[in-house]
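Ligand: calcium ion. Inputs:
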Amino acid sequence: MTNMSLSGTPASGLKASPIRPTVDLDAPGLRHGFLKLPYSSDASAWGSVMTPICVAVNGEGPTALLTGGNHGDEYEGPIALYKLAASLDLEQVRGRVIIVPAMNYPALDAGRRTSPIDNGNLNRVFPGSPTGTVTEKIADYFCRHLLPRADIVLDIHSGGRTLEFLPFAACHALEDEEHGARCLAAMKAFGAPYSVIMTEMDAGGLYDTAVEELGKTFVTTELGGGGTARAATVRIAERGIVNLLRHAGILEGEPEPAASTLLTMPDEGYVVSEHHGLVEPCVDLGDPVAAGELVARVYDQRRTAGATIEYRSPIAGVLAARHFPGMVKAGDCLGVVAYPS
Ligand code: CA
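Predicted complex:
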């Protein structure tokens, strides 16, 4: 247990969170409720942000915290988790499952990556603040109230409206060997078609970092993108969740074995556009690419006689991510090449 009580009294001198769960998070039973955050606006003077939460507690066992909608335009996580919450059989749970299908609920509600209330990118504001913006208050509540309860944490991402990924589960290269091995085993149990051990370029503010700093077993994903879900990627999310709950011993049975290709995504694999324009993809997701092979062409859409810019892969591998949709601006990620490890 960390240096705080679960009743919400911080030991650090931070103010108490203004967020209150409308249901008991600890008592046995299956409950559907909300994380209620008072938020006064033009639309509702004494209103609240109501983030849906489902909690299933049944006997002794570990706690899994399952989240989607950290970014509001990534849909596999929310779809799979709303379905799980609606279908979970309490009798089959050993321990506890906490489901928050839409961590940044205002963003999901608006179909946006960030919150329409404060433009907050939830996955950049951790550990948050109880006196900050709405988005910072949500992050703070996760850090001080939900994460301390959890043993294993799954945060389901996809590419959102501006990226599309090969479907992969991921964990981070961690300094602590035992912790790293736990996360790796959980990632493998998830059983996505691809698996990635990531080194973050900028880990500050990520939920991932907040989870790992507490020593929790953590798995994240990138399952698709383009601002929508696909039947195949939803199935990957649903199967992965069940596999992970089996791996944790919360659901009975063994994870369904799945072939997964382990990829490394090095910094050098990022192809970043330095031009505005119309993109011609020259390879598709999953296609092998040689070092120096053409990945995309960018055309100046303002004239027929403009220069055509070619973007080539800096390394050999497979195309693991691509820009979405069809136009880019300078600084946009055109693609990411990863290599099988
Ligand atoms: Ca994301």
